[in-house]
Amino acid sequence: MAEVKPFAPAKLIIGIISSQDDIFSRTEEAVAAIYGRVDLKSVAFPFDQTDYYDKQMGKGLRRLFLSFARLVPPESLSDVKVRTSALEEEIKKSFARESRIVNVDPGILTASALIMATTKDFAHRVPLRQGIYAHLELLFSRNAAKLLPWTYPDFRQEGYQRFFFEARQAYLRQLKGMILSRA
Q1: What is the DSSP code (8-state) at residue 4?
Q2: What structural domains does the chain harbor?
């Protein structure tokens, strides 16, 4: 009989899409209040690979990523997505806006993969719970990210991949530290 082992903790990643610096700042403060200290922050990349959010959020969108110091259980991803979806609504109300002004996309980074949460079902997505699906975005080898047929167009950019590799290196150091502290 195979031994059932607990999952290794994962690195929480949150992507924020908006067009305004004050909304980025407010969102970063809000997610840090919930999930703890941010240990890495990307630049705000132009979000111009698709016009998917333009009708809701307008033009000139950018996306930045945050990586969190505290590791999370990977099975908490659906709970994080439900919470960040509610946070989008809270931020919209705090700016007294009628339409969506921010998109907050959580994911988890492991030694081998970047998995983002989504509410949209497709054949390659795995149902988690609460209407949330896991979207396998990138696979990692020692020094490269493997793109998949369904990798979102913006995640194919070199700048994104550099950020995720940096977050992965921080994560691997954290795991090594956890192992050494147990020894």
Answers
A1: P
A2: 10-182 (3.30.70)
